[in-house]
Here is the input.
Amino acid sequence: MSGYSRRTILAGSAAGSLLVAAGRAQAQEERLFRHGVASGDPAADSLLIWTRVTGAGDGPVGGRWQVASDAACRSIVASGRFEATAERDHCVKIVATGLEPGTSYYYRFEVDGQRSPIGRTRTLPTGRTDRLDIALACCGMYMFGEFHGYHAIAEQADLDLVLFVGDYIYEYGANAFPGVHDIRAIEPAHDTVTLADYRARYAQWRRDPALQAAHARAPWICMWDDHEMANDDWMHGAQHHDPAINGDWEVRKAAAVRAYLEWMPIRDPAPGSPYGIERSFVLGDLATLVLPETRLQARDRQLTLKEDLEYQVMDARDPARPTVVVDKALLATLDRTALPDGYRLEPDIAGFRNKIADPDRRMVGDKQLAWIGRELQAHVAAKRPWFLLGSPTILSSYVYPDLTQLGKGPAALASFFAMTRYGLPMLNLDAWDGYPAERARLYDIVEQSGANMLVLSGDSHMAWVNEPHRDGRRLGLELSASTITGPSIGELMLPDGPVGEAFARDNQDVLWCDHRAVGYVSLTLRRNSVEGRFVRVTKPRSTEATTDIAMTARAVMQDGKPGGWTLG
Here is the structure.
């Protein structure tokens, strides 16, 4: 039995006005700032601004930065000098301080008289906060789709921040998925393994005008998932890392993390904690946002069907009463590759479920759970209505429906479809469903706090409206974004079948799933309600595309507690 991952499924299936102004400057290849500008990790009195000086060679390059209160950058409120060095790939990260809360600012950089595009950003509010507008996004596969979703984010009228929950880049090389043709050439053409590889991949992504526009529109709060390093990574390895081919995992991991910290608008982790990018944000008196790190600090290896699902010999000579063969002497005489008539192999589903439920399996670890607990205590003490949990993967529980009953999928996925008959987590073994004991400990902390939890997640390449449950009790709400570019997993598995409907039918936690969705979630948070609009990109592989709203989900506070989702 083969294992399954998102890559297996793919292989088996066939800007805003500021950016426009910047684009009218010089031709892209002539600019020193051809990767645009960005901001991130806002606080009430500070935020980080980013750019990269291109064409600088190996030497250091000096320049100036400015933060202003007006879009023309005439009223400067903070400024200083910077030095871009080859040590950090000539990326520049500045933390501008002394700013006012809940205020829009504009920023730019200058080198040798040449100015960068102007970016818009915003500090976090303090005190009374009645509304926040957030764009929730993930999974930008440059090679498989245009960045129309980023263009839509750049043009969104009301936007306080972008929450990006992972898979900003993908480590795969060119045409890595048989049957799925790349529509844009990838740099480098091979898998990213070295520091130079990862840097080149970020550089290509950041040359895209739509992505630059989205960064210039609002501050980003980012968390990595797996593809910033390698597919289905964990502390000591990854599904898409073969030491015999890719070398030492620790070397590759360190290179990937270094490039991420250089290129992303994120504050660097504390010295001595290279992977400690978990952090929290206070959003006035409206919400607390907490982002745990789920990959490199505590995660145990994911279970897979290939490596962890065992098979047992069944005695089916009496078809009405098949039994498991436990006689060791008999088993020793049987050739599993050529069993005699009346015997067959069957997967040990119960044993596999027991492995999944192992209480020792970790995803975030005890240290981060304790930290989340402290954040929850402070949140409840401050009486903020909403506790936002940013999660790179879906928190709610779901199993795959029996796809064999929904239509005929690609021939190469026949064995995957057959396994869906057993009601297992399949591709979501890499998500919280693969670590249910850890999730139960998180649920304990949330329930004990009494906080109103809203989970904002991604990764699955499908769009979801969920309500996490435990023993029949609703523990919170969840919105999960699909891929910003496509392809969607559901579309590739069974484009014409009612897959999304079957997920909702077969799982208590799932209210709605769009298995074909490509796009992001536009979220409006108010004191007494939350509304998520699933912005869907049409024709993501076309150079021209439009967007529409695939679904709107709304929940309203009732006596200080959110009711369930209303869909429409």
Summary: Residues 68 and 74 are 7 Å apart (CA to CA).
